[in-house]
Design brief:
The chain is α/β, with parallel strands linked by helices. It is 35% helix and 24% strand. Its EC number is 2.1.1.197.
Length: 251
């Protein structure tokens, strides 16, 4: 389950998206709200938002009375969270090497961030390390089958990767089992008026970084027309599908 990830490139991609991220974050809201519904009624005071982005959920947790530490790999995202007055504390850091002491956090919250980890089991162990013995972990991530429309449409144009691949549900479930987490999943499909809007939604949330790198070709009008001709759609529009997977501390 290990992966070579250029963390600085990931940080730059999300940094470029920071100022307009919330306008494109429908999936993040869907995932985060589903994760909130899985949260226990009672938990301690100290909360870590690991991969906080613009601080949308940091602020929500702060409004619920938590002492929130907002952590993100991207300096620009963290500044956006500061501008939004989302938390009491802000940390630039990597979920694969949390800059926090052991046993200091009551609740670790991580919404759609661990798919950027180099090693999911390692990231979960980091979360467990900073949690107090009776602490709670809530995370969401993407599983295999996400962005299948991107893969399908581009496969008609070339053989290059145009979206990242994600771990299987069984791999993620195994990592959850090792940390005594309950694993569940759902599939979500978003719709867009055209293929360009679908791709812009990915760019708008910084999710266009490819671990394998890009070929540098620009998207010409001709290539866009070809892409749109092959992009899966239904009566609601051009589709983007996601496989959302949740991990929650067993109660």
């Amino acid at each position: 389950m290990t992966l070579r990830v250029d963390k600085q490139a990931v940080a730059r991609a999300f940094g470029r998206a920071a100022s307009h991220y919330d306008a494109h974050a429908a999936l993040q809201r869907r995932s985060g709200d589903a994760l909130l519904a899985r949260a226990p009624a009672h938990s301690g005071l100290q909360l870590l938002d690991a991969g906080c982005g613009t601080g949308w959920y940091s602020r929500l947790w702060r409004e619920r009375g938590k002492q929130v530490t907002a952590l993100d790999l991207s300096v620009q995202m963290l500044q956006q969270a500061r501008d939004n007055d989302a938390a009491q504390h802000y940390l630039t850091g990597d979920i694969d090497a949390l800059p926090l002491a052991d046993n200091t956090i009551d609740l670790v919250w991580s919404n759609l961030a661990v798919q950027w980890s180099e090693d999911l089991p390692g990231a979960l162990r980091q979360f467990r390390r900073v949690l107090r013995p009776d602490g709670t972990l809530l995370f969401s991530t993407l599983g295999d089958g996400s962005l299948q429309e991107v893969h399908e449409a581009w496969s008609h144009l070339d053989a290059l990767p145009h979206a990242n691949r994600f771990l299987s549900e069984s791999q993620i479930a195994a990592a959850c089992h090792a940390e005594q987490l309950r694993c569940s999943s759902e599939r979500v499909t978003l719709h867009f008026p055209d293929a360009l809007s679908a791709m812009r939604s990915l760019k708008g949330i910084g999710a266009t970084h490819l671990h394998q790198g890009r070929d540098g070709q620009s998207l010409t009008r001709q290539r866009l027309n070809q892409l749109e001709a092959h992009w899966p759609r239904d009566r609601h529009g051009y589709r983007l599908s996601y496989h959302l997977i949740y991990g929650v501390t067993l109660s």
